[in-house]
Design brief:
Length: 406
């Protein structure tokens, strides 16, 4: 059995489809595989990104061209490659930075050209900093690229928190009255893009929007890097097209090693879905379950693990991963997490599920960032997916655990 708290995936190159990542991270291997950096003008890069339908791979899935166009319209812009990956269940950005750093840096240079930036930054966890520095030492880029080490915190990769950190402040989200694309690093228009998004941009500029759209779906073109963990034979990172059957995604990491109760998709801010192998891993395919692909995370929960206890554990973690700067995070999330933890105990009173929902309503939409909303999404998903388990717990049983009544 593999608990979600133990989902740190070993950093190893994927053995499946390989468009983004190879076995050799050297500049020579990169140039042999992809060719030199394309000499394409910025306005054409903008059009190619828009025509490709590229969306952000950091979790939100926002259309990339809209950010690019907004920043390009400003004066003296800045570009930031965001590889913070504060999400504990994800390893895809660290894998990419280790085995495909030059593709990310190519994308960063091309994004800078698209918006007219001369200054760029790379924001990565400490374990990836050496890989990026080594890659930069082998390159001669026409722009300034500065590496920053991200704090090991869940919210450290939030867009405005990234800007705050690059500015020398705390990696904490700020209010959204002023957008990052208008005033970010140094008060200048700033394009913050996930490192995987930039790697895709580098491929789109090389091979074109039509090539990019040969994978994925019409609404969600292209491939994505998925981190699959839990009770699978070979947990790790693989590349798949959007719309892939979730069963094929799990099979790509060796298949389930035990009977499966549920799947958590999208990470700690994601949602639980049934283990139906025919569910399409796409926004359209996951919508009916209130889930999204997020940053490409799939955790496979064993049938003999308590879904309520697992959800309670995650909510407790999320309640502790706040900036402590607004009421929903400072008060609401800890109380909701504590209530859900009580719900996961045996012999719980009938009113607890309703209290979780009441607290969820109080928290939703009131934070400085989306951390409270994402945490509520997980709580509500747990209530929905494990409703029968709630009833069993009230009666003193846990159907998922061997031994039954305790």
């Amino acid at each position: 059995m593999t608990a979600l708290s133990d989902t740190t995936v070993a950093i190893a190159p994927p053995t499946h489809q390989r468009l983004l990542i190879g076995d050799d991270a050297s500049i020579a291997a990169h140039t042999w595989r992809y060719g030199p950096l394309p000499q394409v003008p910025g306005d054409l890069i903008q059009r190619m990104v828009k025509d490709a339908g590229l969306t952000g791979r950091g979790g939100a899935g926002f259309p990339t061209y809209r950010k690019v166009e907004a920043v390009a319209a400003g004066r003296d812009p800045v570009v930031v490659a965001n590889g913070a990956e504060g999400e504990p269940a994800s390893s895809k950005d660290r894998v990419l930075l280790r085995y495909g750093p030059h593709l990310v840096l190519d994308g960063l240079v091309l994004a800078a050209r698209a918006v007219g930036a001369a200054e760029t930054h790379v924001y990565v966890p400490v374990e990836a900093a050496a890989d990026v520095h080594a890659a930069l030492a082998d390159r001669r880029d026409p722009i300034t690229i500065t590496v920053h080490v991200a704090t090991d915190a869940f919210i450290a990769g939030e867009e405005s928190a990234v800007v705050s950190a690059v500015n020398g402040g705390l990696p904490a989200p700020r209010d959204k009255i002023v957008r990052v694309v208008d005033q970010g690093v140094g008060g200048r228009p700033t394009l913050v893009q996930n490192v995987e998004t930039l790697a895709h941009l580098a491929l789109i500029v090389r091979y074109g929007p039509d090539w990019f759209r040969t994978q994925g779906t019409t609404a969600e073109p292209g491939t994505f890097l998925a981190t699959v963990s839990g009770v699978v034979a070979d947990p790790g990172v693989c590349e798949m097209p959007y719309g892939v059957r979730i069963g094929d995604l799990i099979d790509a990491t060796g298949g389930a090693t035990e009977p499966v109760q549920a799947l958590l998709v999208g990470g700690y801010h994601g949602g639980w879905i049934p283990p139906d192998p025919d569910i399409a891993f796409s926004r359209a395919g996951l919508e009916r379950y209130g889930a999204t692909p997020g940053a490409g995370i799939v955790f496979v929960l064993a049938a003999d693990e308590c879904g309520l206890a697992t959800t309670a554990h995650l909510l407790g973690y999320l309640a502790g991963q706040t900036a402590g700067q607004c009421g929903p995070c400072f008060n609401g999330l800890p109380r909701m997490a504590d209530t859900f933890a009580s719900l996961a105990e045996l012999g719980t009173p009938p009113s607890l599920a309703g209290e979780v929902e009441r607290l969820a309503r109080l928290v939703t939409g009131r934070g400085a960032c989306k951390h409270p909303d994402g945490t509520v999404r997980l709580a509500r998903s747990g209530l929905g997916m494990f409703g029968s388990e709630i009833a069993a717990h009230r009666a003193g049983w846990c159907t998922a655990r061997s031994g039954g009544r305790r």
